[in-house]
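> tool_call: predict_assembly(chains=three)
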Amino acid sequence: MTFLRAVSAITWKDVRAELRTKEILSSVIVFALLCVIIFNFAFELRVPDMKMVAPGIVWVAISFAGTLGLNRAFAIEQDRGSLAGLLLAPIDRSAIYFGKLLSNLLFMLIVEAIMLPLVMIFFNLSLLTGPHLLVIFLGTFGFAAVGTLFSAMAVNTRAREVLLPILLFPVLVPVLVSGVNMTGGLLDGKTLADVASGLQVTVFYDLLFTIVAYLTFDYVVEE
Amino acid sequence: MAQATETLRVPPAAARQNMGPADTALAALTVIAGALVLAAIVMALRVAPDAAGLTPDETAAQRIIYLHVPSAWLSLLAYGVTMIASILYLRSSQRKWDEVALSSAEIGLTFTVATLASGSIWARPAWNTWWTWDPRLTTYTIVFLLYVSYFMLRGAMEDPARRARFAAVYGIFAFLSVPITFFSIRWWRTIHPVLFDAKNFGLSSGMAPVFFFGLAAFTVFYVVLLWHRIRLEQAIDEVEALKEMGGY
Amino acid sequence: MSSRPQGSGAGLEDPRTEPAAAPAGEQGGSTMIEIRRLAKSFGSKMALRGVDLDVLTGESVVILGPNGAGKTTLIRILSGLSKATAGTAIIGGLDLARHAEGVRRYLGVVTHAPLLYDNLTGEENLRFFARLYDLRRPAQRIVDLLEQVGLSRRRQDLVRTYSRGMVQRLAIARALLHDPPVLLLDEPDTGLDPQAAEMLHSMLVRLGGSAATIVSGAGDRISVGRTIVTVTHNLEHGLAIADRVAILVNGRIKYHAGVRGLAASDLRHLYDECCGLAQRDGRTGA
């Protein structure tokens, strides 16, 4: 029980601190919107039906914005040395991982909650159905699971923010590929059952890498 | 005043000049590997029978298969070795496993570039294009990117112990992601069929021995390269230790 | 997990299986911190080259040394932030290498980085850490601590608005939340103006005589003198709060003795000597 208590304490601490200033959330939301708008300009005149590129736009925007958010989340801990405060506490170190995973996931979902309705309006699409939300949630979870661990590493390197996408994107390919294709499939009128393989891949990915991250987080934060 | 170091054992300079048994073995193996690879190349170019039903250009190009496929398999083997060495490093914190992981990844990356280049050279006469986004090739490109990232991570860290640990963690994630990437892309392919089919790769009975000989030769070659590279890494460590002792 | 004791207090569990440490307030008796041949290398650079140090329960040891001597490395290893490459450290009967989480329960740590969250109030910071340290009656404890460090009036303000001196005081409050029997302080006066440094110093002097409550293996709650290890550059301040002084140079302890009868000028002389020697040694890598 102390494990869960530590996890929730860390998650709520992150949420409370962020809600105070909203510095990460606001910049990430604005960035996500800019992404979507820029992609709109990039494709608009050459693509017959924007529905074709909408899934890609959504997932790219999520990836870029997510990376930005992840970077800032851990950078803040690092700069003020507060990660050490967590490491000094008599808690299981992996509680730190799960606490951060949940707060990162929560922030990404908030950003998506604002971004998706706007995508729907811009492209005149329906993206808020149950299946869509499930697909986006599963993909976001995988992103947060691996991203939280990698950002803990990236923040300790010379290149910092630049290194996170370099490390993250190749490993994230299954999530992105499945995400784009499931979202696209759903937009084309398929049912959740039709895209079941994609769901399987994503769920498997989420489980596997959360476990691997849990097992390796200790090695990343120790000095 | 010269003093023995506390934790790093640096062998006295004199002993390194003579060839110990390990050095002799490596030298011998190097020569053998060289001979085997040479033989494999000759067999690929001269001994193997022509593939059936191809234009003259394609027939010549098809012989790349004897280089291309072993290269690909060895690169994946090398990355697998890196993952295992990474796990062993995390559990034991022994520098030698990090050396194995790093060396194997470097060799793997070299083989990866060789695979991509040879594949592209083959594709031109065979399919009239330098590139195609079929699942295997796409996955393989991601593999290439993964290990470039591995080295970028290593390059961005200074403390050797932390660098080894981070690289080990990344090495594990990277290798585990490869099969999943392949499946996700292949699933995509079934709902969006690709114009080019996967390379047809049936080996006729005449080709098989040449192919497997080549594979064996390359595997020996990999082992030799790995051994040399690990020794190089150890030498680098010794130099660092000596520099520290000398106060640089 | 052993069951919690009844009644109020920090609710600190004592995972030791040996009998309790020395009785209330008395120094001498058992050793709280035992360090043997502790070494740490970063690649080929050796930060600690075999440190041996014993700190008795209730004792206050001050570690002095020039920059780069390894003082911060030593504190980081003892607090569990870093792992030694060789040697052992036993704190409160627990081996640091094997029972790291248990040891952390004993420790209160103050470093030059505040380890606090700017966007939370002083009170919220303490409440957060109280949850992590699993305190049973956090509210009262927090009120008391804020009073002790003189931050009661500013407790609803964001830490971002605190002066450096206030931040360090809050950091001390944080370190004391769970009433740890061992306090590790790494140059707590860094970045403080002389006035704030004086205030901090008098707080540390008060801490020096304080006692912590722990639960013995048998389940009773006893009071033990707080063991304090302080790293500082300030020889005068250090001398004022120490029972014993150690001088760490180039990863090794060059001097180590009680301060009874030691004047500040003597200490400075000793310190300069140790550092001077080190400069010669540095060339040959000793």
